[in-house]
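Protein Record: Sequence and Backbone Structure Tokens
======================================================
Tokens: labelled as protein backbone structure tokens, with as many entries as the chain has residues.
Task: work out the structure tokens from the sequence, keeping to the layout shown below.
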Amino acid sequence: MNIAPNSYSVTRKRLLAAVASIAVAGAIGVGALTSGTSPVLADAVRVEAPQVPGFADVVERVSPAVVSVKVKAKISPAADDGSDQSDDQDGMNNLPDNPQLRRFFREFRGFGDQDGQGGNRRFSHRDHNNDQPRPVAQGSGFFISDDGYLVTNNHVVSEGSAFTVVMNDGKELDAKLIGTDARTDLAVLKVDGVGKFTYVDFADDSKVRVGDWVVAVGNPFGLGGTVTAGIVSARGRDIGAGPYDDFIQIDASVNRGNSGGPTFNLNGQVVGINTAIFSPSGGSVGIAFDIPASTAKQVVQDLMKSGSVQRGWLGVEIQPVTSEIAESLGLKSNNGALVSSAQDDGPGKKAGITAGDVITQVDGKDVASPKELARLIGAYSPGKSVDVTVWRDGKSQAVKVDLGKLPSSDKQASNDQQQPAAPVKPDTLADLGLTVTKSENGKGLVVTDVDPDSDAADRGIQPGDVITSVNSTEVNGTDDVTKAMTDAVKSGRKAVLMQITRDDTNRFVALPVAKG
């Protein structure tokens, strides 16, 4: 049936009016609509708000366990020479010389002035009486036992000599430092003699999934107990803070002063400890990093027991296994950690682990990466005997290692020999784009020139590097390299694995040989 334009317009208006009337009736509670009459209002209907999940219940339960941590330090006497010397309040002198790491902690640490309003204020030696402890930092923490043990960050307390815990109700209590662990940025404090405390438990963070709701509680900018919420954004983040990086990334608002504060799941369990943020502006941009509960739980137990953490030590330098390296070694995947060198005094070398081995398992646990190996070994106590599975000469082999004690500082592989001088007549490895010469001691080939358009150049090989082995075979001349390349082609492999020494440090590089 055709409808004239005017009729269509009138009909459409009536239809819209009817729909609107029905909508209003449903919203305010209308009795009945009768044709040709106005709506008759019935008694108003009270509509219950939808039950949207909230965080009030969990916050109410956990807030008494979360505290603010105020740190004071005695200012060391210094000669009054008129210079404006300042304390290392941010603890940056204790961090490795890593610009990325320093930026993370500089942008995160929760410093406050004496009014507790933040501001990263610095104090010179001339500002105060040297014998009086002065506020230098403030952060957050949480109780993990009813007898007063609490957890915070190492970087919050590292410069402190006196510590004050501010409870959720504003009460201030003195605390003593039990122990710290700089490698994981964790510390344990203890409050004594004031009864039992509300405390929280660590969660099983292996069950934490990306997208889960989390709640962060802490002391941002010295404001006191503050709650923010968000989700887990990522797992296994490596921010260059240390060998045990395995951070949980969250998007809950975390700012200066949240350091050491807990992040909870909706069951009120601690899934992580706020330790760093990424922020170009200095404030929260939704990228914060938590120490996983599994890491924290183990470290905290050691600190409560002995005040320090003793970690196992394998004594090897390692690097990732790239797809090309895996192919050159006949591995089916790029999982594992490639040993670039074994330290002379290390337990790994004593047990028979050598450069070129790929560590694939420790006590039956798969090693996905060098970081994973470091975490696995660090979880054992010194003296523990472990079974290390290595890939060598195209097959898996088991090596039993009695772990040593992790040194206080990283050891460097030593090499007493001077950089060998290049003979007059160099040789070429044209297929690899390298010009080389024998070393003075006859062990290895010194790279004298690299074709800028070659795969070798793309992989970072440069003049001065020493090629010490190819596919685990020692190199004494170019014939050794050529033979290794030929054998690789016959075996159906597309690359050879070269061991390169530079500045007394070893690494492995996979170079394609298909062209040869």
